[in-house]
Probable dual-specificity RNA methyltransferase RlmN (Micromonospora chersina), 381 residues
Amino acid sequence: MTSLPLISVDPDARGRRPAMPPRHLADLDLPGRQALVTELGEPAFRAKQVSNHYFGRLVRDPAQMTDLPAATRERLAGTLLPTLLNPVRELACDDGATRKALWRLHDGSLVESVLMGYPDRVTVCISSQAGCGMACPFCATGQAGLTRNLSTAEIVDQAVYLAGVAASGAVAGSPPRLSHVVFMGMGEPLANYSRVVAAIRRLVAPAPEGLGLSQRHITVSTVGLVPAIRRLASEDLSVTLALSLHAPDDELRDELVPVNQRWKVSEVLDAAWDYADTTGRRVSIEYAMIKDVNDQPWRADLLGRLLAGKLAHVNLIPLNPTPGSRWDASPKPVEREFVRRLRDAGVSTTVRDTRGREIDGACGQLAAAEDRDSDPRAATA
């Protein structure tokens, strides 16, 4: 049996925790930023000015902050806006509508984020952890293991950076403003609970406090950490919960999503329905279609019975295979039959638009490729 995944970042063998990055204004609420500025001997309103540049104008270059005294721009920006994300690679496909960024953090960790432009919206997919401890065998990030949780600002900075890309007009055919954020990048968001919730509050607060997005346009995915789902329901947030189910039966889900050994399908779905009842938000059921593994007609029928009459929508995901993996995507006729059976059961179902296959679009693939390229042992392996 697969060992249970890690739920939190534990100290290493010598009792040390991973070093977190320098403090950034996105780690703090506005009063916290004001207190930091006054410690520098500057008037508190400077915090609001710098925050307006970062969240309102998507600017982090001190030279462009002309409303700040020239003598203090560098010091204020250096204190409030330290560099958190160092770009390693930025790739584009789908005629520029999909753009993937690979970042190196202060400690050398690699994380990914993706911008996806559509005619009516711009969505970014952001990471909440460097790596992931959930150990799902078909996921590149899960196989890499967990390095550490990201800070609130490291999470937020991904969205702010890609909001700036959208604002520059680089995504032709899409609006110039970021509208949607999905926590579906690297990591299990609810295993980094406090920082993810703080990041959500930054993303939805109006400038200068935050980025000013709609709560209803933010989606948080989880493999099913039941206590955290119930805690999220009590946060007075109206974000969408996306449950990565991937199998309707415990026998298979124990293998595909090892945390199922702790919280079974029935427990996870009960928590999801309670979340829907509390928030009024429809739950998104994420289901990766894996050839000859979870795509049998009887599993579609079982899933339909579990979800019928519930405030839920199934998002079927054609698997994006990772190099050397034994897992592959279901054939299209099998996928269509799965959709038909769910819809016949009265369950709203769509198939996710496949984006970014030619740029290692699935979570963890670009980081894994970078690790292979930078490892001198890979050339002789």
User: Anything to note?
Assistant: Residues 1-15, 376-381 have pLDDT under 50 and may be disordered.
